[in-house]
Amino acid sequence: MKVSELISWLIFPIIVTAVLGGGVWAIEAGHEPSVVAGIGTFVSLALVVVLERLLPFRKEWNHSQGDLLADLLYLPSYFGINALVQPLVVAGIVLGGGLLSDAMNTPLWPTEWPLLLQFVLACLAVEFFDYWAHRWMHEVPFLWRFHAIHHNPKRLYWMNATRAHFGEVIFRGILNAVPLALLGAGGEVLALVGLANSVLGLFQHANINFKLGPLSWIFSVGEMHRWHHSVRIEEANHNYGSNFLFWDVVFGTRYREEQRDSPEQLGIENDQIPASWWAQLRVPFK
Ligand SMILES: [Zn+2]
Ligand SMILES: [Zn+2]
After folding, report:
1. What is d(CA 167, CA 281) in angstroms, rounded to the nearest whole number?
2. Domain spans of the chain?
């Protein structure tokens, strides 16, 4: 095995274990959860941007195809809305009658479990809601008009992760925050879920030639998510999981091919979406 091939197998498991394992360790050691998540996100972003240059999946995907300006404009709205939605949902649930745990007079979230297990449980819960939110965005024509903006690019690189209409960011943000807020998961768990969203969201779209092997049963990143961006609808309507593929396996929508490593063409058939960010924002309302 050549060195470059060995590296392409090791990149993903090493970085994800280091970032998420390091996050669990640092929070258990008493560090501020939001700071840990922020540092983990920044380190992941720096590594992904450098690796896209050193080990690209497609060299031409590192260059703008008229999409860079719109992608840059989506960044602040994505982070701004996400930063607002979660605290608002938590506050709304607390104000509107308290947590389910209080209403039922029994703690619903297993706060006594080791943090790592709480994190896994939280991922399962959030991914269930996000699986259906994402699938509905493909299957319900009105919702697809919002989500199409995420799917129309003909290339995948790290900034596709935040390329989403504000309507989609609000819709999925609320559905992501409600289950954990209702169940009463703590700030440590919420920070770790946020960190997982960052590192796995970056690897989901990254233009890095990394291999998954058996991890393609667990993670909805890299080659698995490229199928989801195929121009062929019969390939694209699969692999809905935003970080993991648990629920795609359960509901029969996991998709992978042995013969081809990627769809030949990405994007949307008969793409009518304008290139300008401002025109894109108005697409769903026309
Ligand atoms: Zn999609
Ligand atoms: Zn995507």
Report:
1. 9
2. 3-285
**Rounded (10°) angle between helices 187-205 and 166-183:** 140
CA of 112 to the centre of ligand 2 (A): 35
Give the closest ligand to the alpha carbon of residue 155. Answer: 2
Ligand 2 centre to CA of 163 (Å) is 8
Locate 63 and state its tokens. Answer: 């260059």
Q: Which amino acid is at 104?
A: M
Count of other CB atoms within 10 angstroms of residue 133: 20
Give the integer Cα–Cα distance in Å for 154 and 229. 9
**Ligand 1 center to 241 CA (angstroms):** 9
Q: By CB neighbour count within 10 A (0-12 exposed, 13-18 middle, 19+ buried), where does 251 fall? A: middle
For 231, which DSSP code?
S
Please, what is the average pLDDT of the chain?
Answer: 92
The number of beta carbons lying within 10 Å of the beta carbon of residue 97 is 9
The CA 109 to ligand 2 mean position distance, Å, reads 31
Sequential DSSP letters for 136-165:
HHHHSHHHHHHHHHHH--SS--GGGGG---
| Ligand 2 center from residue 153 Cα (angstroms) | 10
Q: How far is the CA of 31 from the centre of ligand 1 (A)?
A: 35
Distance 35 CA to ligand 1 centre (A): 30
pLDDT, tens only, 170-225: 999 998 888 888 888 888 998 999 999 999 999 999 999 999 999 999 999 999 99
**What confidence tens digit (pLDDT) does each residue in 153-185 have?**
999 999 999 999 999 999 999 988 888 888 888
Q: For 12-31, how does the pLDDT look when each residue is reduced to its tens digit (9 = 90+)?
A: 999 999 999 999 999 999 99
Both tokens of residue 148?
A: 């199409």
Instruction: Give the distance (Å) from ligand 1 centre to CA of residue 238.
Output: 9
Residue whose entry in the numeric block shows the structure tokens 């998540």: 37
